[in-house]
Amino acid sequence: MIESQIEIATQDGATTTFVCHPERGGPYPVIVFYMDAPAIREELRDMVRRLATVGYYVMLPNLYYRSGVMELDETSRPRMFELMDSLTIPRVMDDTRALLGFAADDEAASDGPIGVVGYCMSGPFAINAAAVFPDRVAAAASIYGVRLATEADDSPHKVAGRARGELYFACAEIDRWAPMAMVEELKAALPRTGVKAEVEIYPGVEHGFAFPQRAAYDRDAAERHWERLFSLFRRRLGPATTAGR
To answer: Do 173 and 143 meet the contact criterion of CB atoms below 8 Å apart?
Structure first.
């Protein structure tokens, strides 16, 4: 595997981005991996590596670069919420545009359809990326995403219909950040959009179940989410080990 940490220029500065892809072959389909609220850490880099090992060019950008922050410690929860609230969907879409521009100049990255995945606060970012870049995003996954159905114009349940790719929502049954009432509102809205989408409830698990270092980690549910991600990306981006060659 080839790993690098690079500075990618954006409209507001530069985002430090972890990039990982196989050493040989390619070009490989691009996947943008949006971080969750606790920021960049080795746990996320390991998840990026897992995706990359099956044949993808995976990009993990630091979304907090505007605030000069990359990593947070366990005592930084008030700061974490402050940083999370500093992000907007238009800002993250500008960052995504910069990421895709960088990948376009890297021969290891395919110029074909891409995938996006977002966890927690970034679930809405992944769905909005599918809506903002419908000609590029063929697969978008929100993993225990928050704010799935709100009054905002860019709420996932409202913008989903602008996507042309396939959408997948993995929702924890026990989630105070995305309660079942919100999930049901999302489920009711999606059929009216005409988009190909699935909402899957992971029974008996809590928000954060896919992160190995979190107290909510559930191995069976986490492995289920990996199976679903691999299947989605293989189906929409092509076989990972041969796509783009």
So the answer is: no
